[in-house]
Amino acid sequence: MKTTLIILKPDCVARGFIGEVIKRLEKKGLSILAMKMMRVDRALAEEHYAEHKGRPFFESLIKFITSGPVVPMVIEGMNAPQVCRAMMGNTKCSESPAGTLRGDLGMSGRFNLIHGSDSDESAVREIALWFKKEEIMDTYRDDYHWLHDFEDGRPI
Q1: Phi and psi (nearest 5°) for 34?
Q2: Which of 24, 59, 68, 92 lies 20 to 30 Å from 150, alpha-carbon distance?
Q3: Is 148 a catalytic residue?
Q4: How do residues 10-43 score in pLDDT, each as one tens digit?
């Protein structure tokens, strides 16, 4: 099992899509280990987007993510970062296929509803930025044996 960070961005929250996104993640077989609603301060935003510092779009990223409430979540599942990224679709919503979150719910390239860690390494770094260890639950879905090839609690 792997974990990843998902952030429902201000446009997703404002448009009332929190439940829709959670529903899709859970239907896929992913578990939510932590979740909260919050406003992002500039310091956290800059640390989260540090890799983009100095790029022309950096300030617009910071302005957007701090413009309203967000819902960060720690998601667990087999290959969670890759699975979540596939579910999200292309960064530019208009180029995302139907069936993806951005393809079904978004129109913009800039206001693209959701963030997901792009790798296992990014997930570890980002989760530590957004959540304290004690905020992350240790859960087990009763239906994992129907979703994954497990034997005695271990992946086959």
Answers
A1: -160, 150
A2: 24
A3: no
A4: 999 999 999 999 999 999 999 999 999 999 999 9
Instruction: Kindly state the percentage of the chain with pLDDT values over 70.
Output: 92
Q: Which residue type does 145 have?
A: H
Structure tokens at 72: 């960060």
Tell the burial category of 17 from Cβ atoms under 10 Å away from its Cβ (0-12, 13-18, 19+).
buried
First to last CA, the chain: 12
The size of the chain, in residues, is: 156
CA dihedral (137, 69, 126, 25) positive or negative:
positive
Q: Note every long-range contact of 96-99, with CB atoms under 8 Å and residues 24 or more positions apart, other chains counting.
A: none
SS3 of residue 64 by DSSP: helix
Rounded alpha-carbon distances, angstroms, from residue 15 to 19, 68, 110: 11, 12, 15
Residue 137's region, left for phi above 0, alpha for psi from -120 to 50, else beta, is: beta
Catalytic residue of the set 52, 115, 145, 148: 115
Which position has the token pair 């792009």? 118
The residue written with tokens 């044996």 in the block is 145
Measured distance CA(21)–CA(27) in Å, rounded: 10
